Amino acid sequence: MKDSHDSPPKTAGAAPTWYEIHHGGSPEAEEAHFRDLADVIVNIQRTNKQKSGSQVSRRTFHAKIVVGVDNAELAFRDDLPADLHAGKFTAGARLPAIVRLSNASGAVRTDTSPDLRGAALKITLPGGSEHDLLMTSYPVSHARNAAQFVEIAKIGAGPKALVLPRMLAEFGPSETARILGNLKKASRPSASLAQESYWSRGAVLWGDTGPVRFRLSPLGAPTAPTLRPDSTDGLQADFSARLSTSPVRFALHIQKYVSERLTPIEDGAVEWKEAVSPWVSVATLAIPPQSILDAQGRATRDRIDTLAFNPWHAPAEFRPLGNLNRARRTVYAASAREWQAR
């Protein structure tokens, strides 16, 4: 089905005009398409379960939790400019947050394996509602849209010897080279999850500010990691060592939409360049000193690993934007039903 500009142009205050494009020409057609994609993702989950010999289903991606804490705080700048206020994200706001840091693979592997890393926040808003922020340790997605993402995942779940010929048959030489090059650069060993940056990759609405992308970046001078070359859970040990003496802190930045050409909403594979749209600091995420490896810390981690994170767990003024993000509402919910059934 051909995509069409079915959403009228939108403006938010003084923000540039922007719009969304629904697959198939309407939200209803797109939603039916996303349900088909969700079925594919659930089948991949079941394939991963069978390959691993596990008795339970896991998340299709980000299966291995490395860090799970429930006492973090997201503190917004006291001097946050008025035009960046949105919902409960206002100057001086202090909001409790759950943090889940993970390896991105759908299989539980050693921490030294090359991989993407993920950061998921579940923020508690005044009144008790929740707001999830999801990020990954590379600025852009390897996939331009949800259909491409799911097709790549389906090919990757099959025989390794057939990955390249199937990619070439599906996407052609140029696009296959782009996809594989992105995956190669993004999937790498990590020295410390406390020293990674994590990007939203897709855009979300930020109240009257309009569309933005967001990023977590480490605060403080880099310090030597404790990860051993043969370590199965070295990233967890490294994070634990850091938290034993001091907080781990990240800066939350946002990047404003400029134009569809320079900062596209629908194409998740295009980076919003800092030279075009500078990052603006809005808040600090602080994880206080604590033990994450004692009995209480492990119990907290295990409880957090039962939680479903979804960018659609958010107030309306922070609605996720773009094809990839719109798909996540349906696909993540279907995937969560599968792994939570354990």
TrEMBL record:
InterPro entries assigned to the protein according to its UniProt record, in alphabetical order: Catalase_sf (IPR020835)
| Annotated protein name in UniProt | Catalase family protein
